[in-house]
Amino acid sequence: MTSPPEVIKVRCPQCATIFTDSIRGSINLSLGEEWTDEEIDEATSVTCPNCRHKQYGDSIIISID
Question: Which contiguous run of DSSP H or E holds residue 19?
């Protein structure tokens, strides 16, 4: 099963901006869903709106209030 998008709060390691974005914990390509490389990249990463630094999967720094 492909995980639904989850909204997370992120701290950018480059510029320290805190922002919210969404990410999917998993994508199951064996289910026959059609995903482009661009869609997979967008679903599994977050991009800082300030400096455009991109973080993937387990390297994302989640901000805890």
Answer: strand 18-23
